[in-house]
Amino acid sequence: MRVDENQLEGINKEHLSLHDDTYNFLGNMLSKQGKDVDGILKKLADFQVAIPSWALGAGGTRFGRFGFQGEPSTLEQKIDDVGILHKLTQTAGAISLHIPWDVPSDYKAIKEVAASHDIIFDAVNSNTFQDQKNAKESYKFGSLSNINKASRDQAIAHNIDVINIGDKLGSKSLTIWLADGSNFPGQSNFQHVLQNTEDSVKEIYKALPEDWKMFIEYKPYEPNFYSTVIQDWGTSFMLANACGDKAYSLVDLGHHLPNTNIEQIVSTLMMKGKLGGFHFNDSKYGDDDVTVGSIKPYSLFLIFNSLVYGMENNPQNPYPAWMIDASHNIKDPLEDLIQSLEAIQEAYAKALLIDQDQLAAAQKDNDVVKCQEILQNAYRTDVRPLIEKARISRGGAINPIETYRALKVRQGLIKERGINSVASGL
Amino acid sequence: MRVDENQLEGINKEHLSLHDDTYNFLGNMLSKQGKDVDGILKKLADFQVAIPSWALGAGGTRFGRFGFQGEPSTLEQKIDDVGILHKLTQTAGAISLHIPWDVPSDYKAIKEVAASHDIIFDAVNSNTFQDQKNAKESYKFGSLSNINKASRDQAIAHNIDVINIGDKLGSKSLTIWLADGSNFPGQSNFQHVLQNTEDSVKEIYKALPEDWKMFIEYKPYEPNFYSTVIQDWGTSFMLANACGDKAYSLVDLGHHLPNTNIEQIVSTLMMKGKLGGFHFNDSKYGDDDVTVGSIKPYSLFLIFNSLVYGMENNPQNPYPAWMIDASHNIKDPLEDLIQSLEAIQEAYAKALLIDQDQLAAAQKDNDVVKCQEILQNAYRTDVRPLIEKARISRGGAINPIETYRALKVRQGLIKERGINSVASGL
Amino acid sequence: MRVDENQLEGINKEHLSLHDDTYNFLGNMLSKQGKDVDGILKKLADFQVAIPSWALGAGGTRFGRFGFQGEPSTLEQKIDDVGILHKLTQTAGAISLHIPWDVPSDYKAIKEVAASHDIIFDAVNSNTFQDQKNAKESYKFGSLSNINKASRDQAIAHNIDVINIGDKLGSKSLTIWLADGSNFPGQSNFQHVLQNTEDSVKEIYKALPEDWKMFIEYKPYEPNFYSTVIQDWGTSFMLANACGDKAYSLVDLGHHLPNTNIEQIVSTLMMKGKLGGFHFNDSKYGDDDVTVGSIKPYSLFLIFNSLVYGMENNPQNPYPAWMIDASHNIKDPLEDLIQSLEAIQEAYAKALLIDQDQLAAAQKDNDVVKCQEILQNAYRTDVRPLIEKARISRGGAINPIETYRALKVRQGLIKERGINSVASGL
Amino acid sequence: MRVDENQLEGINKEHLSLHDDTYNFLGNMLSKQGKDVDGILKKLADFQVAIPSWALGAGGTRFGRFGFQGEPSTLEQKIDDVGILHKLTQTAGAISLHIPWDVPSDYKAIKEVAASHDIIFDAVNSNTFQDQKNAKESYKFGSLSNINKASRDQAIAHNIDVINIGDKLGSKSLTIWLADGSNFPGQSNFQHVLQNTEDSVKEIYKALPEDWKMFIEYKPYEPNFYSTVIQDWGTSFMLANACGDKAYSLVDLGHHLPNTNIEQIVSTLMMKGKLGGFHFNDSKYGDDDVTVGSIKPYSLFLIFNSLVYGMENNPQNPYPAWMIDASHNIKDPLEDLIQSLEAIQEAYAKALLIDQDQLAAAQKDNDVVKCQEILQNAYRTDVRPLIEKARISRGGAINPIETYRALKVRQGLIKERGINSVASGL
């Protein structure tokens, strides 16, 4: 199923007059304040976030899963879903595959489907936190860090497979989320598993094509509840340095202990040229994986402030790979993703409004009150007209959620795929 | 020192045209959406928050204190400071005294000073967490919960003194923050100290004038680091119920364990008619007592959503007593308080914009996406023009911080009071 | 499969001489200190903890599950597993059923199996956090709190069914863990869902037989990640009070926000006569459900100090129903449960060693150092000989884990049940 | 005041028979298990922990301070206090000075006093978190990270002064705890302050004598409540690497976010040869600085397991500098320190009892249950007789707390120094 361009335009027309009013007013205000509105619009329009292939179906918790209807059950259907998202929001121009859930059988066909939606293949993700049917070795006690070489070798080989699959699709980066760790004190020797992990990622690194990057994710806990081998940015950073120039850290917003200052970590990594990937979601308690911006939007804005600063001032850092990494336990996954994409654009737009010169001057004067005013002035601005403008400049919907509903997309998908289709993944 | 009305008006004039533009645009939009803009403006204008008498000087941490210049060193000067705040913001029409730091010597004179600023005396606060010079009994091991009756009696008598002092000033409520607890396992018997506390607050309750309320604050830790007698809302609620109809719980935003859902606690207490007082501040780690809205403004908005709902739907709950309970370690306390007051008004205004009927309908349909949209629509609105409007309707400044600086208030206070004046308090 | 009594005795004989040495030395020491060693032994021998029927198979996380071999696939087999545990440890004399996972088809037969193992049926547990096949209403948006009456009614009826099933087996209590809550701000109206919950539990309470108790569990988050209706002890306590004398709170060690002082909550509830049930587990991050005592054994000891104090001094509180509520992701579930049972006995034994008179005297003197010494003296004592003694006095194993392995129990179970048997449950 | 050797021996004699009984029994048991009891005793006897000069007086919180009597008011008296501690415990053979609180006026005299107590001067500590009277520049907005060069230079110069002072006393290491950070988003530019800090520590490093070490402490928050420049081990490690071989990280137990796995950090740092210093304390909520082992003794044991492993297997890591960094708000500081020292010795002794060969074998087999058993077997052993033995082997007290009280040390100090003496420090 695809979004009909004419229908989309028809719906946009209904909202256009209101949009024009608010955009004109806001644009005018911002111009008076000396903002480069066109430059901001361009940045917003260019900002594209990858959707992971497993996020198009219903998620769940260890206590169960409430299904959703019309889930995509093939890779083509998943790409179609991202296509719908991208058509409406113009912000989801990439998909991030999880292997072995999404191994293409016909690469050419898959690439054509993606191209038809104007979607590229971003970072590919390996999975060594579950045992696959018929796997020779188990990851019950770890994969890249496992005390047994055979398990490590299997996990290394799997990662290299993932690189090869990604390479055929045009991906340029591999994301390693290593769930390895321990549930009980004494279960593993911290130094041995860290050394094993370093050796393993170096092996994978060797197989990395010249123009690829490797992203090393970190997480303090879950699914292991006593220790995790790559528990924090420090460990990830150390491993990336051990591998070489093409290895980077990856920050996932939900992968931190309570109260961590994430924006500071972002700044440190970009200063050192080592922020490679970035996963969006939100959370109140742990790695809750709820809709981006639904719990702590100001924190997201502060993180974007660090990201914007880094993108403008740290040439040593590559342009990061963006991905949404959220779960959809009780919402329609596509609606949830639209809300996440809007929240990301909102935070980005507000961060772009921060007057960096004024801020630097106030910091120099230790005028703490003024510094806060500058940030809050940007944050308190209602930037929705800007985001709408950027979206329609690329042919998207003024109001994606309303349009999605008006177009009866979910009903169409159910019709096409049935009520009981199930997406692979968690 | 007082804010000169003419000067204030002069500064306002410079900002008026911009204010009119933005207000007219926003007001128009909101009216089209069916909002009762005048009703909202009235509520904003009526909303008054008490300033605690000890918050006009520099705060500190256990590692020290960096002083500030021009601090008020008498109660009159403290009231003058609140007067300045109130003149500029029109939101600080009350002061909350801490005894024994602010015992008036001449009640009539003090009341006249306050009246001249249009300031009332809100809840009075007792202090049994420090030993006063020449005190007969020590609170080192507790006050209202102390295992020794003499200490308990002294603390009870002090609270009754505080009531009497407040009574002479026109206060109508007593706030008890009981810091009692223990630093080490085994140090105290949980049941004994809880029973002592219940007995003590009942004694104080007996001395409460008929038209007074008693607020029982709770806090999980600090200054005691193992246990606190009144550690959570459940304990506070239980004690309030044990006392009677005039006893209530008091919620302080910083007094919760990490990740607590405070807005839910607010709703529960108001449903049961037991939310009496409310202390504003913000925090990232613990009871950090930083500027309201500086860390988690969305959380503040959600809490205001609960407050607004309760004020409109829970006649069983009295109108709460509002106070700012923040510390000012590195900012000019008056500027910090202005920022806090603005953040409070902002969260309140946004909560007032939530379409409660639509929200109830979406909740009824379990349309989770729509519920979120409704809240975020309200939150994403730039309500600053509304707040400005409410402020100038009462004679305040369009832009209080800028006005404060343009009027060189701090310089005036330093001139009046000197560089080394020190406020009593923490 | 059953543990062979002769084999067990044979293994015990090998350890007896060492046990006697250590027990005699310790018993002698404790007697010299004035301890009533026989009284302590009797208390230890009498202490029985229920095993939940779903805890005999491998657990998992939302990221997957690593299977275990020889899992029980019928209720009879589950009772057999508890029988093995009880034979070895003499501490697991009860099973706690989860409905609908474990509805007996032949009550008489099931009761005979249990009786043959000397096992009783403790609290029965309802499940309204998952949708059952063919269920008319869904719990996706709540059960007892659901905004839709039909879902609430179904959940109420289910709970009443559970009571009836339990009644036929000799259970005397119902445990309600209500997972209801919301994942996003605005999703539900806090006051409505709380009121619905109060109404629902009152309905269930009406169906409670005269000699039954109802336990209301609380939990701050998971599976819902924004709010949980019964989020803390205060809410549970309020609901229990609203129901009546037979309703109680249930404390699960993993169901608290970070750093909560649980032993204080235990003391408060027992003082008010409202601690009905208690679930053991351990955790480092959230509701990790790992082996009891594996992470914070001193905390468990302090909690037992509160429990022991309450059992001896609070006649207003009934004897609590004990249950282990842990998950077994990477250990043999039976070995894991043995480790949990030993940790419980250890904490209980140490708490019984606390000299309560000395402690009360030191508390009276505010001799904080002494209070700590008294607790630590008890805690630092190696009480393993006492636990062994209590165990063999009832016919259990001196060393249950070693015995379990020596008897090749797991191998026997695999032989009986096969490699791929799967237990119902999570 | 000094402990009288004869009196000490007299008191020991009273406890000797009981000690002998328990020691003989335990020693015998351990020998049978193949433990090298003499080797363990030697390690325990050799283990010496520095006492910070500011920890001999009463501590406080931001809410106040309850004084203590007989506090040392001169550096000589502080050393005398450590001398008393060392005489009784034989574990406190070092003092760690804080500058500018403890600048000696007569170096030779001070060294003689220390030598007379058999006490050496361990790491010296700089203080740039407070403004000293007459200081030219303020640290209100930072010291080594300050945006203003003059403040940075003053802080660098102070650290070099501290090195020079330490050098004259025989210290061989400098500890830098940098409290710098920010209280509000936007207040500082994360990259600028980090770069400033790196430049500043490199300047200090240049002044380090050849045989000295520099320790860089980290802490997530307090006294700054939004960000801290050196917020975690990763940042500290990065800075230490930037300085060179003589720069190391310093771990303080209280300086971590909730639920951090500290023992893993210890292992990582030692593996990389970068754990230079270690500060002991305990906490439940934040940096509570309560008595070592009073809240989480098992966690301390696990950390010691990492330390012992590192000391035995990581020749690349220097022997760490140990210090107690706790506050004494309601206990006699000397009694509190004795309790801390005993808890440290206990955790160390238990960690030494872990059978590392068995553990490695069980880890190799992924026998998680066995791994836990091995750790818990060591932990559950009552090692007090070992510690007593190690202590008396050096001439200390069998029971230091009881001896301290029997000798009426505090009363003697009050007599000598008066009731109102006040120690410099926090």
Automatic annotation (TrEMBL), chains A, B, C, D:
GO terms for molecular function: isomerase activity; metal ion binding. Keywords: Isomerase, Manganese, Metal-binding. This is L-rhamnose isomerase/sugar isomerase. It comes from the Bacteria. PANTHER family: L-RHAMNOSE ISOMERASE (PTHR30268). The keyword Mitochondrion does not apply. InterPro entries: L-rhamnose_isomerase, Xyl_isomerase-like_sf.
